[in-house]
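Methods, example record. To illustrate the input and output format used throughout this study, we show the complete record for Small Multidrug Resistance (SMR) protein. The sequence lines were provided to the predictor; the line carrying structure tokens was produced by it.
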Amino acid sequence: MTVVSFSLILAGVLLNAAAQLFLKSGTNAVGHFDFHLDNVVPIGLKIAANPYIIGGLTCYVVSVVIWIMALSRVPVSIAYPMLSIGYVVNAVLAYYLFGEAITAQKLVGIGFIIVGVWIVARA
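The corresponding predicted structure is encoded as:
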């Protein structure tokens, strides 16, 4: 895998992870909600106007463009497992940004992900 290919994959993965973090920030700002006929429009407008939600959706759009560029260079059987890096990034950043716990079980899972991505990347 070339440096450019790896960079595109990593950029796509990190943008996807950023999108999740922005969406979580947006839902934290909006608060818990249930969709009912009487609140679809107010909640929909609140979500649509939230800058974090907009940022998350923007990250998704850009990540798709970058991902398409990556897939034009790398076999999908190698590129797709790299998305797992996003789990690691999100677990660590969710700990710092949202105070989410990183348990021993999560650390073991993260270790498996890192080893798995390393094995796939060497193929």
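Annotations derived from this record:
The mean pLDDT is 91.
Residues 3-30 form the longest helix (28 residues).
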